[in-house]
Amino acid sequence: MSSAAAKQAFSREETRRLAGISERQLASWERQKLVEPAAQYGFRELLALQTLLRLQKNRVSAARIRVALEALRKKLRDVGDPLKDLKLFADGKKIRVEIDGGAMDAVSGQLLLNFGANDLKRLVPFPAKDAAAVERDRRFTAERWFQRGLDLEQSGAPAEEIIAAYKHAIELDAKSAGALVNLGTIYFNAQKFADAERFYRQALASDPEYALAHFDLANLYDERGDRLRALTHYEAALRISPNYADAHYNVALLYQGQNQPMKAVRHWTAYLKLDPSSRWATIARRELNKLREATVLSGGSGQ
């Protein structure tokens, strides 16, 4: 047994080091609800993070991973967390699950190789669809349209096609927060701020604990010069996700612009702990040093 396997629990820092991931990456997976936020991790959780990293390196999107995990939970009776309990591999843009030499498409359930009889017993039979099943299918189709929107964005497709895909997702599932946020961002980038605000607010109505929606809405208010509402939503994002590095960065800028240096220092410091080596960290470090020098020159006064 490896030394990692022998140890019962790892700190967040140890886990990131062993898995080979940054704090930003881990926080991103937490925001996307692929993993549960935690201060300590066991060996199985470490393996789950390594699986996510492997899928990401094979260019499998987070949205596609979410769809696959949900499908596996429905299809396999005795699996609580597929990332921990199963062997998942990228197969092009799809995900396959391997059990005792057999392989199955994680989303469709199509058998790619022959399973043994014991494995087939684990599969949930598919009875006639009731209302709940119809609803699940509708949401699943909505997720497919959401994924199509992501794929179109990545391929540089025309904005009209991307918008149409996301709107299909919303028509099928009005609470598709991811599609709502992405639509908001498309309109934000086109400087159609009223439309962007409408979609961001719909996303928050669907999921009030969606940190990214709060962050994007804060960016919109910041862009329009509404600093108070921007700060409200940045702080909401940080309440939900305290390790949201970009939110710390933007809050630090806002407090610095409001001549509240001590609050700005606190958020610059938090940002640099989370993201110490990017080009944005160079700016953050410069601004932090300026504030500290100003505080020393003024005799330590501040907010």
Describe this structure in words.
Helix content is about 65%, strand content about 5%. The chain is mainly alpha-helical. Among the domains are: about 1-55, Multidrug-efflux Transporter Regulator, Chain: A, Domain 2 (Orthogonal Bundle); about 60-120, no CATH class. The strands form two sheets. A three-stranded antiparallel sheet has the order 3-4-5. Strands 1-2 form a two-stranded antiparallel sheet. Helix 12 packs antiparallel against helix 13 and helix 15 (about 260-275) packs antiparallel against helix 16. The relative contact order is 0.06. Residues about 1-5 and about 110-115 have low confidence and may be disordered.
Distance between the termini: 53 Å
Beta content: 5-15%
Mean pLDDT: 81
The H-and-E topology, N to C, reads as HEHHEHHHEEEHHHHHHHHHH
Secondary structure category: mainly alpha
Strand order of the largest sheet: 3-4-5
Poorly predicted regions: 1-7, 111-117
- Report the count of strand segments: 5
How many distinct helices?
16
Approximate shape? globular
**For the CA atoms, what is the radius of gyration?**
22 Å
SSE topology:
Blueprint lengths: L2 H4 L3 E2 H8 L3 H9 L8 E2 L1 H15 L4 H14 L6 H4 L1 E5 L2 E6 L2 E4 L11 H6 L8 H25 L3 H14 L4 H13 L3 H14 L4 H13 L3 H14 L4 H13 L3 H14 L4 H19 L6
Antiparallel strand pairs: 1-2, 3-4, 4-5
Helix pairs in contact: 8-9, 9-10, 10-11, 10-12, 11-12, 12-13, 13-14, 14-15, 15-16
